[in-house]
Amino acid sequence: MKTNDLIIQTTTKVVFYIIFLFSIHIFFAGHYTPGGGFVGGLLMSSAIVLLLLAFDLKTVQAMLPVNYTVVTAIGLLIALATASGSIFFNVPFFTHAFDYYNLPLLGKTSIHTAMFFDTGVYLVVVGVTMTIIQMIGGDE
Amino acid sequence: MSLVFAIFTPVIAALLIPLLYKRVSAIHTGWFVLLIPVALVSLYATYIPPIIDGTTYKDELPWIPSLGLSFISYLDGLSLLFSLLITGIGALVVLYSIFYLDKKKEKLGNFYVYLLLFMSAMLGVVQSDHLISLYFFWELTSISSFLLIGYWYTKDRSRFGALKSMMITVFGGLMMLGGFVILGILGDTYSIRELIAQAPDLVDHKFFVWALVLVLLGAFTKSAQFPFYIWLPDAMEAPTPVSAYLHSATMVKAGLYLVARFTPIFALSEVWVWLVTGIGILTLLWGSFFAVKQTDLKAILAFSTVSQLGLIMSLLGIGSIAYHVTGDLVTTFTFATFAAIFHLMNHATFKGSLFMIAGIVDHETGTRDIRKLGGLMSLMPISFTIALIGSLSMAGVPPFNGFLSKEMFLDAVLNLKNFDLHALDSWWILFPIIAWIASVFTFVYSLYFVFHTFRGKHKPEQLPKAAHEAPVGMLLSPGILASLVVIIFFVPNFFGNTFIKPAVAAIQPLAYQVPADVGFTIKAWHGFDSLAMYMTLGVFLVGYLLFKTIPKWSPIYKTFPTKLSLNGMYDGLMRLGDSGANRFSSIYMTGSIRSYFVYMFTAIIVLLGGTMWIKDAFVISYENLAPIRFFEILISIILIVGTITILVTKSRLTAIIALGAVGYTVALFYILFKAPDLALTQLVIETVSVALFLGAFYHLPQMNKHEKGKEDRGFRLGNFLIALGVGVMVTLIAISSHSQKLIPSISEYYKETVYSEAGGGNIVNVILVDYRGFDTLFEISVLTIASLGIIGMITLRLAKKKGDRKVENK
Amino acid sequence: MEILMSILIGFLFMAAIYLILSRSLLRIIIGTGLLSHGTHLLLITMGGLGGKNAPVLSEGVTDYVDPLPQALILTAIVISFGVTAFSLVLAYRTYKELGTDNMSLMKGTEDND
Asked: For residue B674, is it left (φ>0), alpha (ψ between -120 and 50) or beta?
């Protein structure tokens, strides 16, 4: 089904990046202010859903040639690896660690292993949501 | 090497077997497997000298320390004898199987993995000191036996036999577990050592006899005693090496081991003596009588095994009388235990060789039906010699080891006259009579087995293959066993001192502290005043006459009705269980999901409501309530309107949009209740959900209300009542849960430590990724599974069969 | 407010269960959606609604609302999304395969399951 809605297509091109950046922001902010992997991932997916609404499935796949099943798998692996990483430091499974660093440009930044775990969550949420939507939308 | 490790060596080695089988196809996998029992038998052989001196060994490996559960390997005379049998016969059987099983046609990987699994399990059974680990290994032997019987799983008979053996032995195993638990509670320990020490205190407890009977059920089912023996003949569907190993030499003797091992505990009760002796002697008679009826070589051997196991069982029973007598009689009756262990060893040698010969005959002629066989003596002279040695030993003819132990058995039965308890002084005479009759039939079936196979007229036209002698390698194992049969006859006391005495000392620890105290010698010649010798002569005479006249008297077997037989009862019971379970479950498993929902929701109403009513748990408090604001009322109204819209609408589009509206109002509630994360998530997810519903919109069915009209009024009313009940229930619970705060929230801990411990500021997110990270990990796993399921459902179309799966729309 | 919410939750449960017990597939799916909304609201009500501050650390604030129900609900929201999507696909595949959305006709029988 080919849609020819110029207004929505043009707006989408702009709005997509705004939502995308917002999702990244909310993901990183999650540890201190509302947000996190779930919301971030869902926002990201809703941005792609918006693309899907404006263009058709094939066009979007050409724009974002991503295999979402692989994204899910990578996310799950990252989460599991973060959780099991603690075993190598002789602390129980799922023990997180954090520290503060001074990074160029960003200044004093805290780095958490929990954030890597959250990255996994983010990727799984994006992967799963998009897999479902593509599957349902693409089914004849 | 640690003893516990030795137990697990076979099963660890089994991990390599499939690999070897796949990669090294030039060499028969059996050659690799052979190394394991050979190594173990040499290991256990080094323990013989210290064990003769009375040393015992103990090795422990914690299993579940918090429950006090560990693998304790305890090695004394009895365990050592069994361990040597398991690994020794194991080595011979593996050697035999190399020639028996074709490396190209058979799935050797499976076979040897099961066999090694069994070896570990069996070693575990005979060495465990902890009751629960004993049970664990016990069931493992049942499972490996199941797998081995069903090895040729494409044959119906194999599967039937495997299942039957599993049903009966696992039933017994569970009974035994019950007995163990009772023992464990009575003695407050699961260690057999410690229980033996406490036995005199336990014997008067009212549950002691229960424990005794339950443990005996385990032993009787495993050792194929009457009336549970019926699984053993059907187990003969297993490959012959398995029959020789599991179903004659080792696994079926686990029951005997159990009886011997528990004798120091249970023998204090007279029930034990009569049950073990009585069932044993009954099994002896029954098995020997029905062995003559069989036409399959292996079936004859199976019934003969049943009967010989009964013999050993009854000897163990007579031996346990030693706990009830004093003075010289203790020695007299302990001699029966000695005879039991001696016969157990002898049986392993001659029956093992006979099974292997039966396998050879099957292998070389293509049949085991004794009616088709005959005259093989000149074609297979070596096999015939081995078979003759085994059979004559089984019949109790000198100069073979069976003669010695059979003599000792008759002696022991005659000695029962010295034990006159409870007015049984005239009844004892039954035992020698039954024993004598059984010996006659043993003699008959032994001759029947060997002579009907190897003598008589050769019928080559009835044989699937042209008969010829087996390869040397195949004759090696039965040959070794047959030569043992002869050697044991000539130097019985060497074996007696080395293996039997330490085992007897373990069974009768009250009388004999160390094996050196056991002063028995085995004699072939008992003198002219020995009644047992005349009985044996009578057996030979009558047995020979009966053997010659088999065709004349065998019709009596036809007088036994098949329907009333134990096998018929087993089949009936299985059918009854099947159909009964089916009928019972179809009462409530209607196949309609609505029925299940009704059960669940009714249960919620009844259980929760009932508990609340009985415990008087409903509390309502007007304190601590949050004020009601204008916005909240407004949102509540929107929520209610949205929900009602969903209930009454006839259009699916309206319903989906109304559901979205309800979702957004819920998000507004989250904002009002200070839950920004939730509000954000809910808003986004509601958007995506609506997109999802709309994406699937064209595929979705119309919002058909299948419950229109008057006839469905009752249906709707029922639904409404259930829904109303659950709704009210939830409201009551929500009010009560808010009105009473019995336990402080664990959130206080999170609030205090979120910055110091986890270095975060958003408590909700920190809980998700850190404190309760496990939940989240599993959650994303569930999501992944859901998405994979969806991919599966959409991409893998069911093969559509026209017509038959379409259901007419109402 | 808690009592009002409790009644509202009861109403949501009632509507959800009425829908779930019906014979139409789509109504059952919508019912499960409503049921999860009801459950989420129940959880947050149990934790108390009177909190003044969102559970995000800020200077000089001590009375946060209970964060634990919120964390549980967050998990539940995402899971229920997965479940809804799954049952939606299950429903429409079933509808395509069997040609009906009437649950009482889909009952498996002895010889056809």
From this structure: left
Task: Quickly tell me which residue has 């430590």 as its tokens.
Answer: B753
User: In a 3-state reduction of DSSP, which class is residue B75?
Assistant: strand
Phi, psi of B233 (to 5 degrees): -60, -35
Question: Which residue blocks in B608-741 are alpha helix, DSSP H?
Answer: 609-615, 630-648, 652-672, 676-695, 713-739
Residue B68 zone, left/alpha/beta (φ > 0; ψ -120 to 50; rest): left
Interface predicted TM-score of the whole assembly (ipTM), two decimals: 0.92
Which helix (H) or strand (E) segment holds residue B406: the answer is helix B401-414
Q: How far apart are CA B387 and CA B351, in angstroms?
A: 10
CA distance B256 to A42: 66
Within a domain: B520: yes
Residue of C nearest to A129 (CA): C82
Q: Residue B34's closest CA among B101, B81, B84, B88?
A: B88
**Is the minimum CB–CB distance between B677 and chain C shorter than 8 Å?**
yes
Domain-located, residue B209: yes
Q: Alpha-carbon distance B477 to B89, whole Å?
A: 9
Q: How many CB atoms lie within 10 A of CB A71?
A: 19
Measured distance CA(A39)–CA(B679) in Å, rounded: 10
Per-residue pLDDT at C110: 47
**pLDDT tens-digit profile of B7-21?**
999 999 988 888 888
Query: Are B292 and B429 in the same domain?
Result: yes
Q: Which of residues 118-137 of A touch B (CB under 8 A)?
A: 118, 120-121, 124-125, 127-129, 131-133, 135-137
Residue B123: predicted pLDDT = 94
Residues of C in contact with B666 (CB under 8 A): 37, 40-41
Q: Are residues B695 and B775 in the same domain?
A: yes
Number of folded domains in chain B?
2
Domain co-membership, B657 together with B776: yes
SS3 assignment for B721-772? HHHHHHHHHHHHHHHHHHHCCCCCCCHHHHHHHCCCCCCCCEHHHHHHHHHC
SS3 content of chain B, % helix, strand, coil (to 5): 75, 5, 25
| Residue B610 shares a structural domain with residue B499 | no
Residue where a domain terminates, one of B572, B603, B620:
B572
Tokens of B133: 């680990």
Taken as a whole, chain B contains a residue count of: 810
Q: Which domain holds residue B727?
A: 592-708+722-795
Low-confidence ranges of chain B (pLDDT < 70): 1, 420-426, 561-564, 703-711, 797-810
Q: Give the A window 13-42 contacts with B, CB below 8 Å.
A: 26, 30-39, 42
CA distance A70 to chain C (A): 18
Taking CA–CA distances from C56, the nearest residue in chain A reads A33
Query: Kind and range of the H or E element at C28?
Result: helix C25-46
Q: Which of B698, B699, B765, B771 to mutate to test the interface with A (most CBs of A within 10 A)?
A: B765
Q: Residue B637 sits in a domain of what CATH number?
A: 1.20.120.1200
Residues B405 and B269 in one domain: yes
Q: Which residues of C touch A34 (CB under 8 A)?
A: 54, 56
Tell me how far apart the alpha carbons of residues B286 and B25 are, in angstroms, rounded to a whole number: 46
Q: Which residue of A has its CA nearest to C75?
A: A38
- What is the structure's pLDDT at B603? 92
Tokens representing A22? 């917002």
From 3.10.450.50, 1.10.287.3510, 2.40.10.10, 3.40.50.10810, which CATH number describes the C2-49+65-102 domain?
A: 1.10.287.3510
- Position B807 scores a pLDDT of 44
